[in-house]
Design brief:
Chain lengths: 459, 463
């Protein structure tokens, strides 16, 4: 097997497994746990070996970049959708982490979700997520990245609503999907404008050279616009700045999915995109300033909120958000290698924390006993530096979760709903219905026209 | 002039018409369903053979027994087959309560009318096709109609087209020298039939108050788009390009309007109607891009909208047949625990409709947005916003129908029955297989898009 085939298989195998499982289910298979667990474990064990082998080959041969081309997916006139995968010093570590962590989470879930009615659904979506994430990290073009980006988003939303018998997860999944779609508009606009202005979507043509020492071939005002659009898309995916409200809502899903999506892979997709376009960000003081501002403010706010959360998973979600804010700042500062190391380290550590979260009370009690029944409080020496009124204000801000939801409701959702209901009143189909209803009532004698020509209701 | 070696088109149309007339008085639902399916399937086979012969020769081909009247080319070959198969799917999935001899015959007549309008070689043929599609509704084939607004607007569309055709002598004449009135009438006909704002109201009325399945079938013919394409490429020449410009702007407005209007809606039928209107408006908006990518995207999107909305409507009707309270949309129904396959079919059809990856909708929208942004960046941006909102509505509708209830709170209802399962699986397989391997299908549509582009450019020079 040559190196291109190996690299291609690493990405394609989870997709093939997903399709296979989906088709067999449609044909009537009810998804026995044991078979599903074995398929998942064997798949990800082989993929882990595969990615390890690929890393060794890279190291031995001194490879900097490997591209795997499957030709054009479809083509029309001069436009073609290239199916090309790119493995370099940025995508290979992230692909490796994805395979490793999805495998770990899959293995954990075999027992954690034992006899859960959604067992099959979880594993099906986990494989689709694995495929989407690998596609996202190894896509050689913005177009292919969008496909992976959206697959990750869809699986994320479907897993937030995993406990479909409760209304709250379903509502939260819809809210998260709404935020994702808003961010996707920025993403898609950025991608299409890149094609429109620069004539290509391939990373190696947009950012020639090898990461992290590459430059960029985008110039003019268009480059700045594209850069800002992609930063906003990254903010949406990584729950930063104006999009930061969805991450705690996403904790409604089962713990393993929270681990792999919001601790490990999905939330880092935005950081990955920023690392890819970093040469472009570095050129624009506006983009750099915006990115650092968003990163710092989100990190500050998230760390405040994190300290006021009463449950483990929400607390971990805000802790993730804090670290992502710092990673965004690092990218803005141009510290790309540090940001990559931070991303990988954070993904692994946070996954471990999430997976231990269900046993947190047990762990705490054990620690408590080991410490002889008394655990010292932490953080009080920091508190002493902050004046009491400011402490109170910060605490209130944390408890209110930065007033994010209230602001969103007041300035975005309410006006949109109002606009929609206003538009609904213009609907001729409704006028006809109201007119018919009124006519029927009048014929039934419930409404009579009085002398002044107005309707008079007689009950 | 090239001719088919056998009258496939005429036989396909005539056999369907005969079946429709024969079934009108049949009382047994299962007999009517069975023969209706046979007729639709037979028509699909005939049209597929005709399309294959035409594709292999690379030319437009006339039917040997209706030369000058019925033709098949790259533009209509695929829609002819797809529409016949959609009729077959609808007949298979339709609940018993919706079927009877007259309603099966009505659906077959819609198939006859739509196929005639697709394959007509003259404006007169198109006019007849349009009227035939409306005839079952006017004759009460689907029972007493509450959706009078819908019926009225459809008839108005037919009258407008008839007027436009009458002004040009019903032939493949040049519209260039005819009066502005003819253009106005043609534009009105397209806008009324395609449901361009404010005529979109008929779709809302038809879905909400009328018989859902026949109305969806009627709308999914997209005869307005076909009329526009035929007129652009053959009859109207340069001057008619203004029509495309205006209609595509109207379609853009409709796409955005419907997607915003759906936010305030709760009833599943209304949400689905607005979703359908919005997504199908993309077809005309893409045609207005006037480049090969945009037009190919439009033509592929046409197929996606037709197949996906047929799937969604059939599932919604199947759900309504199981749960009467599904029409109100007041609360979550939680049907996924009882009918997981229906839920999956709904989700896949819906994701295809709003263009999510892994489905044909993704390829269609990728091409459509590329084309639209290349010619009108603002237009492309508006389409992106509309599709983002539509995706949210789709997930909301899915949640409302299939999620949010414990198993013990959901009455036992059957999952997809075998006739439903096969029919809906065919839709899903088409959307996913063509989405994973879109090369061939996009290539076919690109061929007709290139011919249309040549016609546009030729017309532009002439103008």
């Amino acid at each position: 097997m040559n190196v291109e085939t190996l690299a291609g298989l690493l990405v394609l195998v989870p997709g093939v497994v997903f399709l296979g499982l989906a088709v067999t289910w449609l044909l009537g298979w009810n998804g026995q746990e044991r078979i599903l667990a074995r398929v998942t474990m064997i798949t990800y064990s082989l993929l882990t070996l595969g990615v390890a082998a690929l890393t060794v080959i890279f190291w031995q041969r001194g490879l900097m970049v490997l591209t795997v081309s499957f030709g054009n997916w479809f083509e029309v006139g001069h436009y073609g959708f290239p199916l090309v995968l790119l493995f370099d010093r940025l995508s290979l570590p992230l692909a490796g982490v994805t395979i490793f962590l999805v495998g770990i989470v899959g293995s954990f879930s075999v027992r954690y979700l034992h006899r859960d009615p959604g067992y099959f659904r979880f594993f099906l979506l986990l494989h689709l997520f694995g495929f989407g994430a690998l596609l996202l990290f190894t896509a050689a073009s913005l177009d292919l990245l969008v496909a992976g980006w959206e697959l990750v988003g869809i699986t994320s939303v479907l897993l937030i609503g995993f406990f479909q018998h409760r209304k709250e997860p379903v509502r939260n999944a819809l809210r998260v999907f709404g935020t994702y779609r808003v961010a996707d508009v920025f993403m898609l606009t950025g991608v299409f404008l890149t094609h429109h202005w620069f004539g290509t979507g391939l990373w190696q043509e947009l950012f020639p050279g090898t990461w992290p020492d590459n430059g960029h071939a985008l110039h003019g005002a268009g480059a700045g616009v594209v850069c800002l659009l992609l930063i906003l898309a990254a903010c949406g995916k990584s729950s930063q700045g104006p999009f930061s409200g969805w991450l705690p809502r996403a904790m409604e899903g089962p713990t393993p999915s929270s681990a792999v999506f919001y601790g490990a892979i999905s939330v880092h997709a935005g950081a990955y995109l920023l690392l890819r376009i970093q040469p472009l960000i570095a050129e624009s003081w506006l983009a750099t300033g915006f990115l650092i501002f968003v990163g710092v403010t989100t990190a500050f706010l998230a760390t405040l909120i994190h300290r006021t959360c009463a449950d483990a998973k929400t607390s971990l979600a805000y802790a993730s958000m804090t670290q992502l804010g710092i990673i965004f700042t690092e990218v803005g500062m141009g510290w790309t290698t540090l940001a990559l190391v931070h991303t990988v380290g954070h993904a692994v550590a946070r996954t471990a924390q999430f997976l231990r979260a269900p046993s947190m009370l047990h762990d705490y009690h054990r620690l408590h006993s080991a410490a002889g029944g008394k655990l010292a409080e932490t953080g009080s020496h920091y508190d002493s530096f902050v004046p009491k009124p400011l402490q109170h204000w910060m605490y209130t801000l944390g408890v209110e979760r930065g007033c994010y939801d209230a602001l969103l409701e007041r300035f975005v959702l309410t006006p949109v709903r109002y606009l929609s209901s206003l538009i609904g009143r213009l609907e001729p189909a409704d006028w006809a219905e109201k007119w018919r209803a009124k006519k029927a009532e009048r014929e039934a004698g419930e409404i009579r026209v009085n002398k002044s020509g107005k309707d008079e209701v007689h009950v | 002039m090239f001719e088919l070696n056998f009258p496939f088109l005429l036989i396909g149309l005539a056999s369907t018409l005969v079946a429709a007339l024969a079934l009108w008085r049949v009382r047994s639902v299962e007999v009517a369903r069975w023969w209706g399916c046979v007729a639709a399937g037979f028509a699909a086979v005939m049209f597929a053979i005709a399309g294959r012969v035409s594709a292999m020769s690379g030319h437009m081909m006339w039917d040997p027994m209706a030369t000058g009247w019925l033709e098949v080319d790259a533009l209509d070959a695929l829609p002819l087959v797809v529409f016949s198969l959609l009729t077959l799917v609808t007949l298979m999935v339709a609940p018993k309560r919706d079927l009877g001899g007259a309603s099966v015959a009505g659906m077959l007549l819609i198939l006859v009318g739509t196929s005639l309008a697709y394959s007509a070689g003259t404006l007169a043929g198109m006019v007849v096709g349009w009227w035939v599609t409306c005839a079952p509704g006017m004759m009460g084939a689907f029972g007493p109609r509450k959706d009078r607004l819908a019926l009225g607007i459809q008839v108005m569309g037919c009258v407008a087209l008839t007027g436009a055709a009458a002004l040009t002598g019903f032939g493949a004449a040049d519209f260039e020298n005819s009066e502005a009135l003819a253009f106005g009438l043609l534009m009105s006909a397209v806008a009324l039939r395609k449901g361009i704002f404010p005529a979109h109201s008929w779709v809302l009325d038809a879905y909400d108050r009328g018989p859902l399945l026949p109305n969806a079938l009627l709308f999914n013919g997209h005869l307005g788009a076909m009329m526009l394409l035929r007129a652009e490429s053959t009859h109207l020449a340069g001057a008619a390009q203004n029509i495309l410009e205006w209609v595509s702007l109207g379609a853009l407005g409709t796409a955005l309007f419907a997607s915003v209007a759906a936010i305030a809606q709760r009833r599943p039928r209304r949400i689905l109607a607005l979703l359908t209107v919005s997504q199908s408006a993309f077809i005309l908006a893409g045609l207005g891009s006037r480049n090969v990518e945009g037009i190919t995207g439009s033509l592929v999107h046409w197929l996606v909208v037709a197949v996906a909305t047929t799937g969604l409507v059939c599932i919604l009707r199947a759900v309504e047949a199981r749960r009467a309270d599904a029409m109100a949309g007041d609360d979550y129904l939680g049907l996924a625990v009882r009918a997981p396959r229906l839920a999956v079919f709904f989700l896949v059809c819906g994701f295809a409709l709003v263009g999510l990856p892994g489905t044909l909708g993704y390829c269609a929208e990728d091409l459509l947005f590329h084309g639209a942004l290349a010619s009108h960046p603002i237009l492309g941006l508006c389409l992106l916003i509309a599709t983002a909102l539509n995706a949210i509505h789709l997930v909301r509708l899915y949640s409302q129908l299939f999620l949010g209830r414990r198993m013990d709170e959901v009455p036992t209802v059957p999952d997809a029955m075998s006739r439903e399962r096969w029919a809906l699986a065919a839709c899903v397989v088409f959307l996913v297989t063509a989405g994973v391997m879109p090369g061939k299908l996009v290539g076919w549509r690109a061929a007709s898009a290139e011919r249309l582009m040549e016609a546009f450019q030729g017309a532009g020079k002439g103008h």
